[in-house]
Write a structure and sequence with these properties.
- The protein has about 180 residues and is of the alpha/beta class.
- It contains four helices and seven strands, in the order βαβαββααβββ.
- A seven-stranded mixed sheet has the order 1-7-6-2-5-4-3, with helices on one face.
- Helix 1 crosses helix 2.
- The longest helix is centred in the first third of the chain and has 12 residues.
């Protein structure tokens, strides 16, 4: 039985404009989901990733990088806070931010100049919930939770909620992710 969609920090899920609930059973499947999500993204998109340590946020972002066709290995930017991966072709750059160690909201993020990068890049922020929403009225939230079954945590299985906020995501094909990929929208 699927759990109802829960919006981070108590925000009403009714503001979501597109949604998909998925069960991901391996790191490879999480990377594949990232590639599928990349097909939905365009310059100016803000993606917020929420999930506990080890949930698969960076693995998903690796898939996004592969799908967007960016240069360089996508690794966790925990110690550098942000990494820019330029495009190999005509697509957007990927700006990968880890806001875990940043305590404040957008004020503390200002030094990263994310508002300058946003129009021509796809910005992915791990641990960004409650910190960077002011960057854009339109954003994509990806919430990753470890699956629990019969009182135990299933090691590689994740429950993933993907939902858009704002008009940009109303007809973006998010629901098709649950059917096996954005390219089937």
């Amino acid at each position: 039985m699927e759990a109802p969609l829960q919006a981070p920090h108590g925000r009403a899920a009714e503001t979501a404009t597109g949604r998909a609930l998925l069960t991901i059973d391996s790191p490879d499947a999480m990377r594949d989901l990232g590639r599928d999500l990349a097909a939905l993204l365009r310059p100016g998109d803000l993606v917020l990733l929420t999930g506990e340590l080890g949930a698969g946020k960076t693995t998903l972002t690796r898939g996004l990088g592969e799908g967007l066709g960016v240069r360089g290995a996508v690794t966790s930017p925990t110690f550098v806070i942000a990494r820019v991966h330029p495009p190999l072709g005509d697509g957007p750059a990927l700006v990968h931010v880890d806001a875990y160690r940043l305590g404040g909201g957008l004020d503390e993020m200002e030094d990263l100049d994310l508002d300058v990068s946003l129009p021509e890049s796809v910005i992915v922020v791990e641990w960004g919930d409650g910190k960077v929403e002011e960057l854009s009225d339109d954003r994509l939230h990806v919430v990753i939770a470890r699956a629990v079954g019969h009182e135990e945590v299933l090691d590689d299985v994740r429950q993933v909620s993907v939902y858009g906020v704002g008009a940009r995501w109303a007809d973006a094909g998010i629901a098709a992710l649950a059917d096996g990929g954005a390219d089937k929208a």
